[in-house]
Amino acid sequence: MEKIIIEGSHRLVGEVTISGAKNSALSILTAAILADSKCTIKNLPNIRDVAYLKDLLLQMGAKVESNKDTMTIDGSCISKHKIDNDLAKKMRASYYFLGALLGKFKTAEIPFPGGCDIGVRPIDLHIKGLEALGAKIKISHGMIKAKATELVGTEIYLDFSSVGATINIMLAACMAKGVTTIENAAKEPYIVDTANFLNAMGAKIKGAGTDVIKIKGVTALHGCEHTIIPDQMEAGTFMAAAAATQGDVLIKNVIPTHLEAISAKLREMGVEITEGEDTLHIRNRVRTKAVNIKTLPYPGFPTDMQQPMSVLLALSDGTAIITESIFESRFKYLDELKRMGAKIKVEGRVAVIEGVKRLSGAPVYATDLRAGAAMVVAGLVAEGKTEISNIEHIDRGYENLEEKLKNLGAKIHRISVAEE
Ligand code: UD1
């Protein structure tokens, strides 16, 4: 077991380069199995979820080669249409195999997916969408079994603009007969990145990034080369950390439009942000002002960023309200922040944060991936030593976090400890 140790109260100063987007990487690596020849995917983040997905692809019979941030996948030799329970349980995105296997082979068997414990996280919208395309789906003994004689395009309205359901339906619909229309589709940058990748493979997808996506089915998809977009959430975490430590950080390799909701809130709090073509320069020398945040689907404020931002709010001048409207149980980590001196009350999906002047280092627990990121931001700004346990979550989604922070002047390191 490992822990991250941070000696806090050091300003972050310098430059940091953002890695490829985790959520894009996971849907795109799975989409690669739809091709009947090699796909080369570049700018992949070196994170645990990508390693798990690589193992899953290998177990299914795909030929996979990786070199630094590039992976080549030949899905033409996939021999299994069922995915392994232990690996699938480790991450949420294993559900993309349902759409991809069904699209290509008209049969799929996957376990209920794992991932962060932030609420019930049903996949009913995925299932409804795939059934509307003609799949027969049965759930028994924790497995989801899908079969179709053929998939036929249709109109699908999503009750909620779910990221996962939009991508899963897109994956299956690429190889369905006729046209599929997804209404109230999610618009997150990963959807556009995945659609661009599928189109480079020969799919015919229009409207990704808007509420209505139209997919004209094709009979085969071919290999291609694709570069993953930069990670919006990693960039957002560095933005929050730079602002919280009253730092001066140039964040490189970002798409500033993807970060507008976060930039707008930080500016409202008094943080100076200068946008370049693919950079954001964050400067802050003052105690930030409290603001209210409501998480919403893109282009609204991302749910994944409410945790790192809550640290900044815990130290801001005034009282802030966070309303979590995407996941019903994404405030567990606030108990950990309270151990560090934050004043927070939670009522259902609303957290009221009364700003304090300082946080003090403490032993804390990463309850999920972004909660782990929040603990790191809190440790960087707190007085004294913070010890974060359960950091496997952080490794699932952040590449080289300690190195990147050390280069900015943070006093952070990792230790191995015996299992308790
Ligand atoms: C994806 C992201 C995650 C991000 C989230 C919201 C990946 C691997 N994960 O998760 O980082 O926090 O989008 O931006 O890309 N819902 C249903 N039924 C469904 C599907 C979803 O009720 O069939 C509900 C969920 O419980 C949740 C909401 O819809 O309350 C949003 O979920 P969704 O957009 O699907 O998120 P994920 O794909 O799980």
What does this structure look like?
The protein is of the alpha+beta class. The chain has helices spanning 22-31, 48-59, 85-88, 96-105, 124-132, 163-173, 189-200, 232-244, 260-269, 303-314, 334-339, 369-381, 392-397, 401-407; strands at residues 2-7, 13-17, 38-42, 63-67, 70-74, 107-111, 136-140, 143-147, 155-157, 179-183, 204-206, 213-216, 225-227, 248-252, 272-275, 279-283, 293-294, 319-323, 343-347, 350-354, 363-365, 385-389, 411-416. The chain has two domains: 2-19 and 230-416, UDP-n-acetylglucosamine1-carboxyvinyl-transferase, Chain (Alpha-beta prism); 22-227, UDP-n-acetylglucosamine1-carboxyvinyl-transferase, Chain (Alpha-beta prism), CATH 3.65.10.10. The protein contains 14 helices and 23 strands. α5 (124-132) runs parallel beside α6, α6 packs parallel to α7 and α8 (232-244) runs parallel beside α10 (303-314). The N and C termini lie close together (9 Å). The mean pLDDT is 95. Bound molecules: uridine-diphosphate-N-acetylglucosamine. Residues 23, 26, 92-93, 119, 121-126, 160, 162-165, 186, 188, 190, 303-304, 326-327 line the site of uridine-diphosphate-N-acetylglucosamine.
CATH architecture of the largest domain: Alpha-beta prism
Roughly what fraction of the amino acids lie in strands? 15-25%
CATH secondary-structure class of the largest domain: Alpha Beta
Care to count the β-strands? Answer: 23
Q: Provide the list of bound ligands, each named once.
A: uridine-diphosphate-N-acetylglucosamine
CA-based gyration radius: 21 Å
Tally of contiguous helical segments:
14
The helix/strand class is alpha+beta
Helix content: 25-40%
